[in-house]
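From the pipeline queue, job 12 of 40. The input is one protein chain; the requested action is below.

Action: predict structure.
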Amino acid sequence: MLRIVTIIAVVVLLASAAHQASAQIMQIGADEIAAGKEASVEIDKEQALVEDEELNTRIRQIGEALASVANSVEVDASYGSSTITEFDYQFKIVEGEDVNAFCLPGGIIYIYKGLIDQCETDHELAGVLAHEIAHAAHHHMVHLIKEQSRLDGKMALILVAGLLGNIDTGDMSNVMMGTQFYRTGKMSGYGQKAEYDADKTAIEYMIRAGYNPVGMLTFLERLAKHPDLVDWGILQTHPRTGERVDAVKVDLLSRGVEINRRLVTTSFLAQVKQADCHGISSSEVIIGREIICNLGQIDRANLVANQINALLDTGLQFREIKVCDSSVTARGDVIVEFSEEDAQLAGKSQAELAAEAADALRRVLFNQMVAEL
């Protein structure tokens, strides 16, 4: 009799909880906006926000261009719902070195300063913001909450069945642990579907807003070089970055998008930077973190940088880079020739400077090849 009373009590409690949960499930539209605003108030109390007006304006301009597309163009959803709800998207920058961003229901987006610092161009930033906007526009949070509610109902039925089946305490504990792992695993799967949908949708938003979607690819490639130290396995809610890179690359190619990384990142783009060499002002030609050469006149440095970029755009190869005495050549043309003045400035011979510049160019080509692979 005591066992029957206990079972009845458990069933009543579960039924009551299920009823309350179903009544509180978030709905598309007003519920999302209200929930997002309420959560944002609490987050703003806990997180320090960046007040730099120039940086906030930059993020807001990129975000609003993308949000305008999300509010007007319906993109088919592989997860969630493509129903357009015109959200008043907001963009807030959080102090901190975390490489992270997240979106609240209703379109309030938080992006950490650490993530912004990892983005080399506005195209890469647009990729991050478009991804978060897609989470809101396709109502992923609403659908994840509904999936969780369904799973909680299934778990309740399993526990009731265990009680009615007279399972002993030890086995019942294992059943409860098993149902929890089942729930976590299923939610992980749903979360990954939402991530892939956000990536695919973000590419469409970027194209329509005038941003190069290759920026999303290059940013993900950079993250893939620094994977998390902990593999969460079944608890992982996001697909591995390398898998997202593959999916984005396939999507870009299917759309006929040319994957030219130099258009969206500085890692493979020759640029000129003012430098100080032994107390003398000079002009460095750099590609990413590689210093190709250090020259005195900025006009000369600009010519070298432009020539290198032209060669990179036409598929410069390792074997084409040659050292000839004091100069570096490719395809029969001189890329840079070092003078006596350059040698004196660096405290090295002209031949040494030419050899170092050629080696730096080869490292750039190697890194580019690795990225493409």
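Job complete. The first helix runs from residue 2 to 24.
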